[in-house]
Amino acid sequence: MSHGQAFPETAYDCIWGHSGCSGLFTDLYRHHVPWISIPYPDHRRLQPDPRRRQSPFFHDVYSHGRRPQYHTGPVVYLRLPHGMAGAALATIIGQIISGIMVIVYLTRFKTVHLSLGSLVPVPSHMKAIAALGMAPFFNQMAMMVVQIVMNNILRYYGAQSHYGSEIPLACAGIITKVNMIFFSLVIGLSQGLQPIVSFNYGARKFRRVREAYLKAVLIATMISTLSFLCFQLIPRQIIGIFGSGSEEYFHFAEQYFRIFLFFTFLNGLQPITANYFTSIGKAAKGIFISLTRQIIFLLPLIVVLPMFLGIEGVMYSAPVADLMAALLAWYLLPGSFAECGYGRRDELRGGDGGLIAA
Q1: Whole-angstrom Cα distance, residue 343 to residue 15?
Q2: What are the pLDDT digits (tens) for 296-353?
Q3: Which residues of 167-194 are buried (b: 16+ CB within 10 A; e: fewer)?
Q4: Smaller CB count within 10 Å for the chain: N or C?
Q5: 8 A C-beta contact, residue 273 and residue 292
């Protein structure tokens, strides 16, 4: 029995109640969480750098590690009468298969040989790893806190509107997940940028650092702009993929898509910049930037704006926070470029024989 299955119903009620869930969603989670909380190997924590291994196989396993879940999901969910439990079971099976695939690959390194001694923690290594991972860690924690507060706000002010509490919670959950599909591409881009910036910054190849950052921002902006166009032009079609509903349900979903995600095209700047600062050894500034949107701007706005605008205050809080976070990230960047000597005319001979702006 997993720790999720050991929880009594009163514990579930307490957890989901404080998380903003209503009675309907609490019943669904009671069937889902006991299975999803079963411990399983998470292949994402076992990620070597596929570029150094020069292995398309591992890159495919890591990038599409949930692919087994896509195969097992329909089989478990449709063939077996488990409902929400079947969906959770499909997730677990897919993750276990992915984890096994990665573990097998870890034994086939060509240049690095792992042993039990490799698993012994080294304090200096742990400190360096923690510094690199702090910005995304705090960003994920901030997203969790904001989601809990938002669920409670949506339930409270939704109950006071003609939509009721169920429609805002359902729409916000679906739209958040849809946005994360696009945003995960930006997160992956920022993580891929990190070793490139770190290496070239350490080698004092500052022109490459700047070019890598600007290219990452450009690609992230292109991805974010594409998602912005989808959210603005075809919100009803997107929400319709997840099922049917009343006209009020679709009306709220369209409004939420168009207002809450209005500045989606700016969302690539903040995570890229936060990881950039972390990569050049300025972890504190990277952590600060990673917290600006979620904690410093969005969280207070979610609480304050609905007091004056009702349920629509939640929708308007996100674009304001997105804009302020993007402007702050862009404001802090030139100072870092100047500190690294990007603005000077003198040049240094780069390690690759080229001329590198210092």
Answers
A1: 52
A2: 999 999 999 999 999 999 999 999 999 999 999 989 887 777 666 554 443 444 444 3
A3: bbbbbbbbbbebbeebbebbbebbeebb
A4: N
A5: no
